[in-house]
Design a protein that fits this description.
3-stranded parallel sheet, Rossmann fold
């Protein structure tokens, strides 16, 4: 499954939407990226996101705070961005080195939560119809996985889906998205008994456990669709690609699979947030 190609198509569509917003209103969608400290990987990630924004004609606002910033100081900065009408989306690079990261996330207005990290966004992921009117967006990696499944016409209604990993930014929100599409969902984790046997039932397998080459080909049902959301040192995913690829009907490579979709969805959701805030 070519995530790079699908992400490129998504970004091209976003570029057209940005142009339309500018033509109709004179406003350029703006994503603010908030980084606390100087973690090298986080610096690279936020720079990459800003560059992708600028490449399609969006604005990016860089907010970098010292490592010494406490929760109150971070919340105050986020509240300023939330009140700024020229900022349409806010991304707090996580993990943030503060005592109460959740308080910082909840300072993001739900209508600007384009990374899908607030409780309001989580509610929408599990109850999309009821929560849609209240705003909120999908967590970007799970939403990217869903877009990739749709791009390859993977049927989800009635399918048995197994999600390996229960993190707050990937496994749990993805389970809600799959459930909302009428899949039968099992979330597996470190306490799951006989994990390979559970995985063998799955029509769709999502690996989000953070362990290189964890899922092997002999765990899979022949013809399963495998979404490898892992990224480990050396560009290695959570699935052993060499043994999984011959068994799977479709599989995402690492790199070039789920990763490009994450940033593309972040940008798409920022454009959508701008449209909603402007009433377009």
């Amino acid at each position: 499954m070519d995530g790079s190609r699908v992400a490129k198509e998504l970004l091209a569509a976003c570029q057209g939407r940005v142009k339309r917003i500018q033509d109709q209103t004179g406003v350029t969608p703006c994503l603010a990226t908030v980084l606390v400290g100087e973690d090298p990987a986080s610096v690279v990630y936020t720079r990459m996101k800003r560059r992708r924004c600028e490449k399609i004609g969006m604005k990016s606002l860089k907010v970098e705070l010292p490592e010494s910033t406490d929760t109150a100081g971070l919340v105050a900065e986020i509240e300023k961005l939330g009140a700024d009408p020229d900022v349409h989306g806010i991304l707090l690079q996580h993990p943030a080195p503060v005592d109460d990261e959740r308080a910082a996330f909840e300072a993001i207005p739900v209508e600007k939560d384009v990374d899908g990290v607030t409780w309001g966004s989580f509610a929408r992921m599990y109850f999309p119809e009821e929560a849609a009117a209240r705003g909120g967006f999908g967590s970007c990696t799970p939403a990217g996985i869903m877009r990739l499944l749709d791009a390859y016409d993977v049927p989800l209604e009635g399918a048995e889906a197994v999600v390996i990993g229960r993190s707050a930014i990937l496994g749990r929100p993805l389970a809600g998205m799959l459930l909302a599409r009428n899949a039968t969902v099992t979330i597996c984790h470190s306490r799951t008994r006989d994990l390979p046997e559970v995985v063998r039932r799955a029509d769709v397998v999502v690996a989000a456990v953070g362990r290189p080459n964890f899922v092997r080909g002999d765990w899979l049902k022949p013809g399963a669709v495998v979404m490898d959301a892992g990224y480990n040192e050396g560009n290695i995913g959570d699935c052993e690609f060499e043994s999984c690829e011959p068994v799977a009907r479709l599989i995402t490579p690492v790199p070039g699979g789920v990763g490009p979709m994450t940033i593309a969805v972040l940008i798409e959701q920022t454009v959508e947030a701008c449209e909603l805030q402007l009433g377009i």
